[in-house]
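pasting for ref
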Amino acid sequence: MPRRERDDLVMYRALALILLLSASAAGQWEPQESNTKESLRAISVVSQSIAWASGTHGTYLLTVDGGRTWKPGQVPGAEGLDFRDAEGFGLSAYLLAAGPGEQSRIYKTNDGGEHWELQFTNRDAKGFFDCMAFWDERHGIAVGDPVEGRFQVITTDDGGKNWKYTDPRRLPPAVEGEGAFAASGTCIATQGQKNVWFVTGGAAARVFRSSDRGRNWKVIETPIRHGAPSAGIFSVAFRDARHGVIAGGDYQHPETGGINLATTDDGGKTWKPAAVKEQRYFSGIAYVTEAGGLAAVGSSVSAVSEDALNSWKSWRPEGFNSVAGAPAYGVAWAVGAKGKIAKAQIGDCGTPCQSRTGR
């Protein structure tokens, strides 16, 4: 082989190796020390530096340095509760405990966890709250499983000082055996000033949607596999008013494929199966880049897509319970069993990040 051709071949192989290594690094989870062994179910990313997490035995965690150090704590009086959702706003945060009757509660801190206020306690013995979401720090919403045939929805417009029940007659009836999953704190999503969606499983796999902060609702069927009490939609995310994703499957059979992912481009009025061929059970999905990059996690796998679930850029046998992203920074955090926390730089930070962080 002529020397020039050999040199070109060497350069080509070197370039191919660089591209391969770059691709394999995309979405690679870097473990962080959580300083707890509690099972973690929720993660809320505020910025590149600040994130909150929560889990069993009244546990919460806070980092203010990008995860280099996590400070765990336990909400006083909540030692027997399971915090399945966390929503952070700087050093302020809300925690939602999921469980039957009075075990479903909402707490808030305004000082990084130094003090906690009990804001809401579910007094209905049949009630079981699953997840919550916020449009901003003052305006939030939470959803619970059906009571007397209708999902329970509560809202606040004063930072949680008052949580009010939505008139159940404004929600479409639940199907017998239909419920929501408190698996990852992501069974409800808000967008803009008034849009909200929550997802269901069991006997049905549907999306409930509202465009007026939960006052009135419509419900839409989806192609997500369901039927068993352990199957359905577990997670929903929207990047704008039109484009969203849902994820789920069967948590008792996490290796099973089928239609576990679906997308919408009309605000959730219709849903179609995602194009990616390899699918598993996913308990959480989140947008992690401003260009629409997504991270999905389940008990047996985690995956990253950069093209709205048309293909996977990364597919890894690393299981987590929940995932959240900060699209402005191209960063994602995931949490799982036994205090597992990991972080990944999914997208290129670039100039927008520098302008947002003041660097």
